[in-house]
Amino acid sequence: MTNKDRIIQLSETQDLPDGDYLALLTSMTKEDRDLIFAHARQVREKVYGREVYLRGLIEFSSYCRNDCLYCGLRRSNGHAERYRLTGDEIVACAGPGYELGFRTFVLQSGEDLSYSTGDICDIVSGIRTRHPDCAVTLSIGEKSREDYQAYFDAGAERYLLRQETIDPVHYGKLHPPELSIENRVRCLYDLRDIGYQVGCGIMVGSPFQTPENVLEDIRFMQDLSPHMIGIGPFIHHKDTPFRDKPDGTLQDTLNLLAILRLTFPHALLPATTALGTIHPFGREMGLQAGANVVMPNLSPKGVRGKYLLYDGKICTGDEAAECRACMERRIARAGYEVVVSRGDWRGEPVDSAQAEC
Ligand code: SAM
Ligand code: SF4
Ligand code: FES
Predict the structure, then answer these.
(1) pLDDT (tens digit per residue) in 186-200
(2) Which SS3 state, helix, strand or coil, does residue 209 take?
(3) CB of 162 closer than 6 A to ligand 1?
(4) Which of 9, 155, 316, 324 could join 128 in a cystine, given CB atoms 3.0 to 4.6 angstroms apart?
């Protein structure tokens, strides 16, 4: 089978045997890539049209108790500037965000234990009460099932937690021994059971990653059936143990985005800030490879230069309004359209026989 055959089969059946996924991950030519991007665009337009959903990202604390080897916020990084916003400050970010047309707010942070479960619930319900037509997404790491349930009851409907890699050996090379893939998987299934729209994902080209690891991640995601899949290139940070590791590439990230779009036609796929960091038009190319979400920064200007996961992060000096306007121009240039909408996941169409029951 040629890569062209594989791309057509993946578009038609949303799945491939292991060897054929591996071939697409490792041997696509320029011609193959053009073909897979065209198929990914077609599938994305069938499900989501030409709409791009905006998520306003509020990075509310750069403190983290964890020590993930790849991340600039890791607790051992003594050079990181730390900040945390108060509950009121976090809720206040949503006001101007609403005016700018955001209808989803993503609250992200390091694992900062100074916010209690009640604090997070108050922040979530504070935003939901002021903006009942908006969704709140949390991305605050590994918690107990009880905590996840409490946030959900307070009004959080979506949660982003990348598995990073499903392979335990690879996971162990990226994380300190106290973190385990078993607990991460437990978190993801708890979130799904509770009723969240769940986002998982990986860094493309993370240190020691093999194509077989990426294949295992695709298989894991087929089992989890996430609503969102966040992928972006690994980018080194100068004050981490991975300072000398090579960054993930634009090409590998775009290829995987297209493969994921064909495997998960209904998934929400962001064109990430990391993709925009490794190439000035990375996010535009991401949209043209099947992505349908972007996450402009809504954090207060005074702190956004301090939430540094990796070197060279873009959008750290711009006001929320500038970033939002810049993003709109970029999306239009890529041939897509920003919509003012919560941008919920669009599930499988209900079978007409079922709909009549
Ligand atoms: N602490 C929470 C967590 O880990 O889920 C949320 C914040 S964490 C910074 C969000 C994501 O940033 C991680 O899932 C990871 O994939 C990504 N990230 C961290 N360091 C990175 C790096 N050096 N390059 C690219 N992405 C990175
Ligand atoms: Fe903390 Fe998340 Fe960074 Fe890990 S990836 S060190 S949990 S902020
Ligand atoms: Fe943030 Fe361009 S998208 S400044």
Answers:
(1) 999 999 999 999 999
(2) coil
(3) yes
(4) 155
Which pTM was predicted? Answer: 0.97
User: CA dihedral defined by 187, 190, 294, 287, rounded to 10 degrees?
Assistant: 90
**Residues 312 and 277 sit within 8 Å (Cβ to Cβ):** yes
φ/ψ of residue 270, rounded to 5 = -80, 145
Give the type of residue at 314.
I
- C-beta neighbour count of 338 within 10 angstroms: 18
Measured from the Cα of 161, ligand 1's closest atom is 5
Instruction: Report the 10 Å Cβ neighbour count for 246.
Output: 10
* Residues 268, 216: Cα–Cα separation, whole Å: 20
User: Between β-strands 197-204 and 228-233, what pairing exists: parallel, antiparallel or unpaired?
Assistant: parallel
For 117-175, the three-class secondary structure string (H helix, E strand, C coil) is HHHHHHHHHHHHHHCCCCEEEEECCCCCHHHHHHHHHHCCCEEECCCECCCHHHHHHHC
Which ligand is in closest contact with the Cα of 179? 2
d(CA 128, CA 154) in angstroms, rounded, equals 9
- Report CA(329)–ligand 2 centroid distance (Å): 31
Distance CA 282, CA 328 (A): 15
Q: What stretch of H or E contains 269? A: none
Among 245, 258, 312, 315, CA closest to 288: 258
pLDDT tens digits, one per residue of 202-260: 999 999 999 999 999 999 999 999 999 999 999 999 999 999 999 999 999 999 999 99
Q: What is the biggest distance separating any 2 CA atoms in the chain, rounded to whole angstroms?
A: 61
**Helices 211-224 and 250-263: angle between axes, nearest 10 degrees:** 30
What letters, b where the CB count within 10 A reaches 16 and e where it falls short, cover 266-278?
A: bbbbbbbbbbbbb
Count helices and strands in the chain by DSSP H and E runs: 15, 9
Is 276 close to ligand 2, i.e. is its CB under 6 Å away?
A: no
